[in-house]
Amino acid sequence: MNEISETREAREARLQGLGCKRKRVEDIRFTQGKGSYVDDLKLPGMLFGDFHRSPYGHARVKSIDTSRAKAVPGVLAVLTAADLKPLKLDWMPTLAGDVQAVLAGDKVLFQGQEIAFIVATDRYTAADAADLVEVEYEELPALVDPFKAMTPEAPILREDIKDKTEGAHGKRKHPNHIFTWEVGDREATDLAFRDAEVTIKELISYQRVHPCPLETCQSVAAFDKIKGELTVWGTFQAPHVVRTVAAILSGIPEHKIHVIAPDIGGGFGNKVGVYPGYVCAIVASIVTGRPVKWVEDRIENLSATAFARDYHMTAEIAATKAGKVTGLRVHVLADHGAFDACADPSKWPAGFFNIVTGSYDFPTAHVTVDGVYTNKAPGGVAYRCSFRVTEAAYCIERAMDILARKLGLDPAELRMRNFIRREQFPYHSALGWEYDSGDYHAAMQKALDTVGYQALRAEQKAKQEAFKRGETREVMGIGVSFFTEIVGAGPSKNCDILGIAMFDSAEIRIHPTGAVIARMGTKSQGQSHETTYAQIIASEIGIPADDVMVEEGNTDTAPYGLGTYGSRSTPTAAAATAMACRKIRAKAQMIAAHLLEVHHDDVEFDIDRFRVKGMPERFKTMKDIAWTAYNAPPPGLEPGLEAVSYYDPPNMTYPFGAYICVMDIDLDTGVAKVRRFYALDDCGTRINPMIIEGQVHGGLTEAFAIAMGQEIAYDEIGNVKGASFMDFFLPTAVETPRWETDFTVTPSPHHPIGAKGVGESPNVGGVPAFSNAVNDALAFLGATHIQMPHDAWRIWKAAEALGAQG
Amino acid sequence: MAKTAIALTVNGEAVEALVEPRTLLVHFLREQLNLTGTHIGCDTSHCGACTVDLDGRSVKSCTLFAIQAEGAEIRTIEGMAGADGTLHPLQEGFREMHGLQCGFCTPGMIMRAYRLLQENPRPTEDEIRTGMAGNLCRCTGYQNIVRAIQFAAAKIAGESLQEAAE
Question: Closest approach of chain A CAs to the CA of B7, in angstroms?
């Protein structure tokens, strides 16, 4: 390579920096079966743990007999609540300020709840023995319907806190009540409704679903008695938080706890929290003195670890006849299951649900959320979304369609009339957020033009006429969705987890040869951090991405950070990465000036080098500078070239997008076919377009699954109705539609590189697009709102109820 | 539990081992042979993460006992790259076309696609989607998996890779 004659384009290309469709570093090992996931770990003497779980949704535990289980050859220990109690580990704190039973003591509160942990020499023996634990129960009436949770006759679920009138988030109105969260201006909103020309009100439910990553939750704990050190490998989206919580719970000093998140096979929010399996594996390792592995199976995953949604939202909009919104009122009944184990920032019991005004300029709004306990699994995690943002987006996007229908306006037109205008940014929403940037009209117009919206509406009209004439049984739906996300928790002033402020971090070290190791406080579970963080570094300091190794997940080596969920890696750790790079660049500038024998103000950064201003032939590459930094630093300058940045973002970021779904529905079968799905995303600066597109495809597929079939349902006595892949809808390549992606770019003004995050947008915007399409298809028959999931049977039933089945 | 001796070929190498009759093939591969590239994603034979090639068929190794593989010839993801480290066109295709994210389903996907291309060297998109329906992915939405397999099919057929990429 000739460093002087090489063109600027060639130098840029060699870096593979920002905006480049760089192929993924991770793929080299994953395509060869050489990833290292938790269950791949094999340690000398390792034991296996397995749970005995409750068959009942609600029952008193009268006795537990573990003698037969203990007698199985190969079983070393069987832990119950009685064993954990002296260690004060029979209960653990949740991220939401509640407590959760690690192993059930007096009572079981959901089907699948953990009762005993069996530790054996291999997984088959542990499973055999788990079946031999004998528990005597007294069955209690189960509370499954959240709408009945606060009635006088409801059974009291949480006897441990039944007399507490004050919860982690204020007053409790009923023993099954967790919190009421209120935001906005009640009086002004009441006035808006009093004076409204038009109003709508609808109960919009978002069913209980599950993030369901392909790899279940699992961990290996190894306690070294001699050193007093604990090492835990696990499927942790937030390994540093796990270490801190483990230190607080166990009393082992934090520096003697080593938490390692190796490769993770998808997370989607399922792997943020701390589960009884992790705690029991740790205790079992301390008790037995041997490493203990715990791997949940799929049925355990779907029925016991961290569900999502289960939000029942009553939305009201006030508007003028001309289609201008004047007020929004929402009440949410939130079903949290048996323990409040939401993974929201601690001060936000309903997450960022107050993004529910969406992309629209509501002059006033008021929201209340009531969280209640039921006999269902705990959770309430953000399944591929920022905290409760998909619920909020679904709520407002359905409600806007319902309003459009009532006004006789096209849903796209109603949105256009109410969007926050470009010049209003930074925009202060009625519910307290400061939207950083956006150009909603342009994005929507591009989407409408690309799909040929008017022609689609004309086609739909013609089909409806043909349907009415009895010429076809197929109807057509056009689902329009325009979402605004709020991601990147968070500014530490308003976001923390159990008091741990939600910043994130990057530590970058340039070795003498110019090769780089970079470590972050986040943790990829498929988000391609090893590839994309290196691209940021390449552009910021001019070292090829291929010379940068990115490492995350080891709490001993990585700087402290809050992990990866809620699309926070780009807004926080990627920002930290850029900031650390800039510290390095500042020092590199001093070194370059020294080498070039000019004042540091007389050199400038140029792609991969510092050059003397006005004399491009006089330069030093970053490689030269790295060598000098270690071996001949300028007088008075410390050797070395590295930096660390802890980035506390000034604000969150607000990605947005316009999605349009065209769907054909056969009313005789209820089968819905997605003919076309167009997704325009604006995630600010685009780090790697290939990876963005891949994330959009994946998120849309998850949205499709949720809208069109996923549900974790319970029967009236608390049995989970189908918690395996026999029943839980995961689309295959056959059902999954083809995706069409597009973009606009509106950089975040406060992020160092202008990026906003994208991984969760397609789920947030996708669900309302599918649901609006189904509802739009049936609206001409009189439908106002049909609840999800929209599987063929339910669509058929809805059509039947509308009198469309002959 | 009493163990049974089995003899089989895995990735071209003769293997003899003692297994419990109830040991699943996937656990035998992962835990006894340390071939951890084959993954487990469900309990009900739906997800396909454990797919391996057995005597010219795709099988879900969580659904067979190891003793059923007696005398069989098995190929796993670890047997896909050449001895010199050259990647199989499918491995290359998955990377080129961004056909993976978390990587957990990928070994099963590649093993299934390998057999699919043996049976149908130039499948259409619909044939690929149908042929891959036994393998679930939670990250990619399949679109790029289809392209990855098309890439590999073209490469194996010696055609221009640019065409496949279009």
Answer: 22
